Amino acid sequence: MASAQEGSVKQAPVFGAVILSLLLAGCAGAGKDKDMSPVSTVEEARALWQSQGVKGYEVTIEQTCFCPPDLLQPMRVTVREGKVIDIEGLEQPLNHPDILDERRLTIEGLLDLIEQARGNADKLVVEYNAQYGFPASLEVDYSPFIADDEFSYRLTDFQAY
Question: How confident is the model over 12-40, as pLDDT tens digits?
């Protein structure tokens, strides 16, 4: 009889470990938001962005383009009601803010740009923010045969108001 108890005592830690691992596996996804699935199309991104109801935000935008060096630095952009109200160069003053296309500095404007480029660009690569739906990074090249027509944007440090 002692051997039977001995066997059950040895199995108890194994059984407990199995139960514990099943409980932990079940809890692993419990805190995750089901709505945080990856956004893969501009339509999904726009719907998610609009559902957030963001009226104002600040975001850091870095662009690459064939443009003056002061526009290649990170810029802190403030947007209210879809309009750019402030642009600040984070490394140096902006000497050429007048040539910035402010539509490309708003979330709605970038989503419009993606929709337009989708049918016309040779290369279009976009990664969307899973929480808000804005394009976190965007690369566009309209023609591989034309130098300096490509551009990209990277959005970081987003804060909604």
Answer: 444 444 343 434 444 444 443 445 668 99
- What residue spans of the chain are helical by DSSP H? 2-28, 42-52, 107-120
Let me know: does 74 contact 153? Beta carbons within 8 Å: no
d(CA 5, CA 23): 26
pTM summary value: 0.74
Upper half-sphere CA count for residue 18 (Cβ side, 13 Å): 5
CA distance 105 to 118: 19
Let me know: does 65 contact 82? Beta carbons within 8 Å.
Answer: no
CB 61 within 8 A of CB 153: yes
HSE, side-chain direction, 13 A CA sphere, residue 8: 4
